[in-house]
Amino acid sequence: MRFADKGAVTNFRRTLDLKNAVATVTYTSNGINYKREYIASLKDRVIMVRVTADRPGSIDCDLQLRSPFKQYTRAIKGKQLSLSGNTSSVDNKTGKLQYEVRALPIAEGGSIRATDSLLSVSKANSLTVFISISTNFINYRTLGNDPVLLNDQRLNTVSRKPFASLKQQHIDLYKKYVDRVSLDLGSNEAANQPTDERIKAFAQTNDPALVSLYFQFGRYLLICSSMPGSQPANLQGKWNHLLSPPWDSKYTVNINTEMNYWPAEVTALPEMHEPLFKMLEEVIRYR
C-alpha cells in the first residue's frame, strides 16, 4: 500500500491489542488524523486492512502485490489483485505448492481505478482491503486443493458483510480463548512507556506488568498460530519472512514443538493442541 505524500507525519503510534488481536497504526498528516487497523481474522481466514480518516475524501493510495519468489504471475481480476505461482525448489527438492494471493479493496466514497499491475484508490472516505492466501495443500502428503476457488469463496463471503461485523466476530472468537486466564503482578509508572523502551530498560528497572504482558503475548502467539482446523505451530511460525529460513521452519520435535505448545494446557488453551495431534495422526497413518 503506497500512500500519497501528504506532508510531515506527527503523533505516530503503533499498537498491538492483545485483548482483541487487532494491530493499529495512527498518525496525523496535513492536519488529518489517519487510522489503520490490521486483523488476521480467526473467523473468516482472511487478512483485513481498514484505513480511515477524520476528513472525507482524504484516502489516496496505490495497491500492488509483490513476492520474494523469483517467478510469479500478477493479474487484475475485475477490482481484485491476484499473485500466483509455485513454491521454489531448494536442496534438491522440487517446489510443488501452488499458491494464489488475492486482494479485494472496497472503498467508501472516491474511486478505484485499475492499471497494468495495481489498483489506485482516490479520494476515498474509508478503505477496507481483504486479503486471502490459499494453496493446494491438504496435508503433508496430499495436494489437490484449488487455491483460486478457496480465495473466491472466502472473499465472496466477507465482501457481503460490514467491516464492523467481521471485526467483532474475530474478536469474539479470540476472546473465547484469551479471556480464560489473567495474570496481575502489579503495575507502576514503567507501564506507561512504549513497549520497546520497557524491554530495553527491564534489566535495570522494576516493571512487573511487562512480565504479565509477555505472558499474554505468548498465549496470543499460540492462539494465532495453532487454531483448530489449521496447521500446527512450527519453528519460525507463520511470521517467518524468508524463503529459506534457518532450520527450514521445521517442527524439530526434540525441543521446539514442546516449547511452542507449553502454554496449551497450563494456560487454558487445550484446543490449540488439535492441529498438532491431527498431524501426528496423519504421520502415523500414512508412514
- Do you know the CATH topology of the largest domain? Beta-galactosidase, Chain A, domain 5
Overall pLDDT level: 94
State the major sheet. Answer: 8 strands, antiparallel
Number of domains as seen in the coordinates: 2
What is the element string, with H for helices and E for strands? EEEEEEEEEEEEEEHHHHHHH
Radius of gyration, in Å, reads 21 Å
Task: Specify the overall morphology.
Answer: globular
The helicity comes to 25-40%
- Which segments are poorly predicted (pLDDT under 50) over 5 or more consecutive residues? none
In the sheet with the most strands, the strands line up as 2-3-4-5-12-9-8-7
The computed structural class is: alpha+beta
The CATH class of the largest domain: Mainly Beta
Number of DSSP strands?
A: 14
Structure notes:
The strands form three sheets. The chain has an eight-stranded antiparallel beta sheet. The chain is built from seven helices and 14 strands. The protein folds into two domains: 162 residues, Distorted Sandwich (Beta-galactosidase, Chain A, domain 5), CATH 2.70.98.50; 106 residues, no CATH class. With 287 residues, the protein is an alpha+beta fold. The termini are far apart. Helix content is 26%, strand content 31%.
Question: TL;DR?
Answer:
The protein is of the alpha+beta class and 287 residues long.
What are the defining features of this structure?
Beta-galactosidase, Chain A, domain 5; 8-stranded antiparallel β-sheet; 4-stranded antiparallel β-sheet; globular
